[in-house]
Design a protein that fits this description.
By secondary structure, the protein is α+β, with helices and mostly antiparallel strands. The protein has one domain. The protein is built from 2 helices and 3 strands, in the order ββααβ.
Amino acid sequence: MVDQKGQSMAVYVLSITHKHGTNVYAFSSYEKAYQGLSQYVEAWWGNYADSDMPSGAEEKINQYFDESMAYDEWWSIDECIVDCRTF
């Protein structure tokens, strides 16, 4: 969301750390970042999870990262305020 003066906006940064490094994505809302995380889990489910994928995003994400903890895989979503002024 851009502030009232148009000088700054919130960006939501999704970081997913795994055995090969860290993937970093930026989104315009927390909800979109969480959806991006869910899509990541869907793409990589077969690598770590030994069971069928749950249908709900929260359950899917929790189960995937619970099962992948042995591989030191985790995620975070951080709100960052970006200065939008031009100089």
